[in-house]
Amino acid sequence: MSKVTFNYVDSLNDIIERVADITSFQYIILESAARILFEFFNYDKTKKRIVLNGGETTPEVWDKVRIFGAEAECRWHKAESHHDKSYHIFLLTDKDTILGALKDFFPNENTKEISKNDPIDIYLWGESTNDKPDEWYEGQIPRFLSYPLKVSDPKKIYRCRLIIYSYVMRDLDQEGRLIEHKFYRPVKLYEGEVR
Fold this sequence. Notes:
Largest sheet: 11 strands, antiparallel
Radius of gyration: 18 Å
Number of strands: 14
Order of helices and strands: EHEEEEEEEEHEEEEE
Distance between the termini: 39 Å
Mean pLDDT: 89
Helix content: under 10%
Number of helices: 2
């Protein structure tokens, strides 16, 4: 059974180090008001920095971060104000072993079972270019985009596709009425041939 859990923390370094030890986490999306990056997840424990394509960063400079892969997603955002805690962290996983590896960060009382639905397959903006195997261009914006996906045949044109799982958690509100909470977890990127 899939599970969702959350907590509030002051620092992100400990949880990121633990997440870096779990091989299920492949990708990272970093968001701020100025930019969004989508890259392979790589963390340098000695420097306590996220390694990016062309540099490195600390998690604190981003407003929202999602680290995900085939079996789980760990995300956080800056907390507005929650008992002097700086970050709201969230874990959605299909594996109890991942939840067990991160149990120090997520109290049992915050953990709920959720139902997993069939995967959704969506196309992202941009088509591959013949110049660089990891570069994507979207004429409607118009601009080049970067995704952590290299095309297998640079002579063909591809669109980047993302598999997403949807989940539903059923709960009762304060008046005893059934309510549903929906969650979406990105899983994997792959190439979809256009022509």
